[in-house]
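Fold this sequence, please.
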Amino acid sequence: MKVIIMFCVWMCVMSSLYAQKDCSVARPDYIPLSDMEGLIFRGFPGGLYGNGSNIPPIDHTKAVENAVQSLQRLNANGLPDNNGKIVMIGVGASNPRTEFDEFIRNYASYPDKNSSLALINTCIGGQGIQKMNQQTDNYWKQAKKIIEDSNYSVNQVQIAWIETDNTQQADTVFPRAPLSLAKEYQQLLATLHKEFPQLKLCYLSARGYAGWVGDNQSVGKGLMFPRDYYNGWAIRFLLDSVMTNKGDYSYAGKDAVIPLATWGSYLWTNGEQPRKDGFSLDCQTDIGPDGLHLTVAGERKMGALLFNSFMANPSAKSWFTESKTTAIAEQNISAPFGLLINSHATTLFLSASESGEFPKRITLYSQCGEIIVSAPLSEPSMDISFLSNGIYYAVMQYNHQTQCQALTIVR
């Protein structure tokens, strides 16, 4: 008996040691995709889009606007109904589940939330894309039950947020590995198209950093570094194909085989090194013992980043808030909402709204959704000399409305 007990203790100790994260790891040769405008990685231009920048092509922006304009309140049979709902689901495994839970909590406390929007977390731990891209997989049976238990129907699902990877694929050769994952993403989108007939738009998020896993054998090889970094590249490559709107990537009209996909957020950081927008993770406080899963603090940080990325996204803002569900034109980012920048791009001037009131608060977001500054306003101007060149989103809160405008800083 004593031998058995000692053996069990030894196994517990070894398991604990085996699961230890390695916070000392540095990856100097890897740059966040969103920080790579004008840069090259192994022969491929960086940036979130194929044009080597973080700005989507005009045609893609218009396609997303058209998809948003098609959103409407639906009943359980998928028919237009003023008392119906627009359902958004979260699709992914364990980290995505906790991130989307925090996203839902952030949204619940948002004062201008759309009462016609229902958020349902269908992420299930341990489920990789290799399972989810099969229509017959048990993942979808469980996901549908979650939706039904929430008193909604698959026919009301019109928006999906997705963060996933192939948990078993150990290939780390670039660009072969992310190109293969991009094809699996296409298969997942095709499955979603079949499972949710009213699904219009999918927002894709790149995975967070996994380089602290070390030699932990309990973590699937497909989740380890550098596949976490390649995950963002896979989405980039996928969207390159989606923007052709042809063949297996057709998303419009009767020939559609997938819902339209676009960027949701970019979560990857190079370890603890802050990105250009200031976002970073702390290995000790944000990451659990296995180097992969998030702590409560990490969940809150990722959930806030995800929520802020939707807040900063003009297309999402149009259905995110009350009374703007089907009218993206009301939130057109090129519309003159009264923001002017001086010739040296050091001061932001705000004019009154049509009703004559000035904003009570302004929040500036990076293009990836990180809050740069959020402050009440006592005068109709704001110092922006601290901002580096790039694209930002200004969300202005008045007494009776919220408005969003894109800002481009070039000095």
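The mean pLDDT is 85. Residues 33-328 form a domain with the Rossmann fold fold (CATH 3.40.50.1110).
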